């Protein structure tokens, strides 16, 4: 008999400004968490008091989720322990990846999150991330198989932030008014994710093989590779300080589209290390 599918998914809000929105997302997390799907709330540099009266009133029975929310200084830190990341976007053009419909993107997330957790209780002994808690203390947080990221209420996610995701998700709305409130968007996405989680207990999700060629590498390890590569390329003169950001964004996009795994990243890290050693020898 196959092990039951279970996964912990991080719901990440980037710089939320409305306390009622944060409370509404916490309430949605409480609504749709439980059984095979465990949801945890992460806040990146919130621009409001997420434990204020307005947020707590909106959270209702999601108060425990709100009070347990993890705080991070930036999105990269919030995603450091994640392998499968879906970011929401409403732009429709000029994005690093083609946006997918919710079921396709969330199917990729759910299947990958279960692969990361080993299909048992959403835990993975190989992951021991560091987080900053709401009271300022730090320590290990529960392992997460993946994350779904929501951007700012007024301008969403930046291009660089979208580059941190493995897939982009777009919610289909009427053309006359396509903008969704943050809490509304979160409720739509989390409800679809829960339906998928419950259904998968009886009928495993099947995705095209091209959707997930390998298990993606953890986000912090990919970031370490990119940092090492950028340092080397600046050192040898391939990159210049004023163009490094744009050129590294292209490299990041290439690696994201390729969904590189642990083996590929280890190979690239070895190449970077050897090339740095050779460049510093200054010999033919």
Q: What do these coordinates show?
A:
By secondary structure, the protein is an alpha/beta fold. It has 2 domains: 7-208, Alpha/beta knot, CATH 3.40.1280; 213-281, Helicase, Ruva Protein, domain 3. Helices cover 43% and strands 14% of the residues. The chain contains 10 helices and 8 strands. The chain has an 8-stranded mixed β-sheet. Helix 1 packs parallel to helix 2 (53-59). It starts with 6 loop residues before the first strand and ends with a helix. 41% of the residues are buried. Residues 119-142 and 207-212 have low confidence and may be disordered.
CATH class bucket of the largest domain? Alpha Beta
Strand order of the largest sheet: 6-5-3-2-1-7-4-8
Strand tally is 8
Q: Give me the CATH fold name of the largest domain.
A: Alpha/beta knot
Please identify, by name, the CATH architecture of the largest domain. Answer: 3-Layer(aba) Sandwich
Low-pLDDT segments, ≥5 res: 119-142, 207-212
The succession of helices and strands, N to C, reads EHEHHEHEHEEEHEHHHH
Enumerate how many helices there are, as a single number: 10
Shape: globular
Mean pLDDT: 79
Distance linking N and C termini: 60 Å
At the fourth level of CATH, the homologous superfamily of the largest domain is SPOUT methyltransferase, trefoil knot domain
């Amino acid at each position: 008999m196959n092990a039951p599918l279970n996964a912990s998914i991080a719901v990440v809000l980037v710089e939320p400004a409305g306390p009622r929105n944060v409370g509404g997302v916490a309430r949605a997390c409480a609504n749709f968490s439980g059984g095979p799907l465990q949801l945890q709330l992460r806040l990146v540099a919130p621009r409001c008091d997420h434990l204020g009266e307005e947020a707590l009133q909106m959270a209702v029975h999601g108060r425990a989720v709100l009070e347990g929310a993890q705080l991070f200084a930036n999105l990269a830190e919030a995603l450091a322990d994640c392998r499968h990341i879906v970011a929401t976007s409403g732009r429709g053009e000029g994005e690093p990846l083609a946006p997918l419909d919710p079921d396709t993107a969330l199917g990729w997330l759910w299947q990958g999150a279960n692969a990361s957790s080993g299909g048992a209780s959403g835990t993975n002994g190989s992951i021991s991330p560091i987080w900053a808690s709401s009271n300022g203390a730090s320590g290990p947080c529960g392992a997460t198989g993946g994350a779904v990221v929501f951007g700012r209420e007024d301008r969403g996610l930046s291009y660089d932030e979208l580059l941190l995701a493995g897939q982009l998700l777009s919610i289909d709305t009427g053309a006359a008014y396509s903008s969704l409130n943050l809490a509304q968007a979160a409720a739509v996405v989390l409800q679809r994710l829960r339906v998928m989680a419950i259904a998968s207990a009886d009928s495993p999700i099947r995705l095209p093989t091209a959707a997930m060629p390998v298990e993606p590498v953890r986000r912090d390890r990919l970031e370490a590779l990119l940092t090492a590569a950028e340092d080397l390329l600046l050192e040898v003169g391939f990159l210049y300080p004023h163009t490094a950001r744009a050129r590294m964004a292209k490299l990041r996009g290439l690696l994201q589209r390729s969904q590189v795994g642990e083996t590929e990243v280890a190979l690239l890290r070895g190449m970077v290390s050897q090339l740095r050693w050779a460049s510093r020898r200054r010999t033919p």
